[in-house]
Amino acid sequence: MNENRKAVRWNIILPVRYVGLSRHTESSAMTKDLSVLGAKLAMVERHRPGDKLEMMLDMPAGGSNNSMCVDADVVWQKPACDLEEGCNYMAGVVFRNIRDCYKQSLVEYVSLNHPKEFRQHWWDGV
Prior knowledge:
Layout: E1 15-20, E2 25-34, E3 38-43, E4 52-61, E5 64-79, E6 89-96, H1 100-113, H2 115-120
Antiparallel strand pairs: 1-2, 1-4, 2-3, 3-6, 4-5, 5-6
């Protein structure tokens, strides 16, 4: 698989709810890593490259719940090696037309709530 990442990915686990627009499915997933441009998701359902998802990322912070809605395209999906997680597939998604304010919110969330992870990738650029 070619490496196409254009942004730093942080090892952040967040709950995701999504609607599959291609096949009209609703489900949930967990991020395995996250960037301002995309994510790696642990999923139950099978998707194909090109499938479109409408996702809601739940970013808990300081007792209040901040949710962010983003549109995403499935770039790849493969069977999960570790089925103990209750997920059948790992998938890479790229966010479509993500707003700059959402990118900033993600960076702020990671820097405030996962400072070690944020500092670890500081020199890679955001």
